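Posting this for the archive.
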Amino acid sequence: MILKLGSLYSGAIDAFAYAANVLGGGKYEVCWQVEKRYEAHKYLKQNYPNTKKHFNDDKVGKQNLERVDVICGGDPCQPSSTSGLRLGQADHRYRWPQMYRICGELRPNWIINENVAGSVSNLVLDQKISDLESIGYTCQAYNIPAISVGAHHERERIFLVANANAQGRRGLLCPDAQAIFEACKETITLGAQGNPFLQYQESMAEPALFPVADGLSDNIFRLGAAGDSIAAPIPIILLTCIYEIEKMIRNEREHNN
């Protein structure tokens, strides 16, 4: 069983596509990525050469995106970030309406949306849940900090998981999602004394500030791309849970037939 995945607001790293690749080609296929920054496409092409690429979220939809089982994406966080003005829906960088439109047109079985914790207090998360529920999705939001998967910094992030048919699948959902979460967590043992830069250097075997052979400006972009991304074990866990649920559902259907 292979689930198809589409990625919105992929960034240069695309942690969701990375997670799909870690889980292996026998579980997920990354079908397309949407990212507006041309600099990021340099890395997307390098790391995901066989995945279709698009630039503008308002130029894609059912007319040019393949229907997938899972759509993942973290819309820009600036409208909700506590380090900004927190204008929410009034911010010109607020892109949730485009993600909502794309999900409504393609109707994936699953949607994973990621954003900062500030999206709770400024009611952006409430708007997202209301929008998805209005078109038949059942939603659950989780606050999963990076520290919960072994990182040496807190970095709270809100992950909104939506399913197109959760009511009809109630009896088939995983009875112990916590067990799956714990089983998928990577054990990270580092002697970096809580320093995230040293932790990165130990785990990745390259300098935390990245080599500068390609020029300083590219180095700065790569630092920003790393800062924009999410802790990779989190999407690995979420996609593993979705895969296990889908496998249970399909096995049940085959048994009933």
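Residues 167-173 have pLDDT under 50 and may be disordered. The domain at 3-256 is CATH 3.40.50.150 (Rossmann fold).
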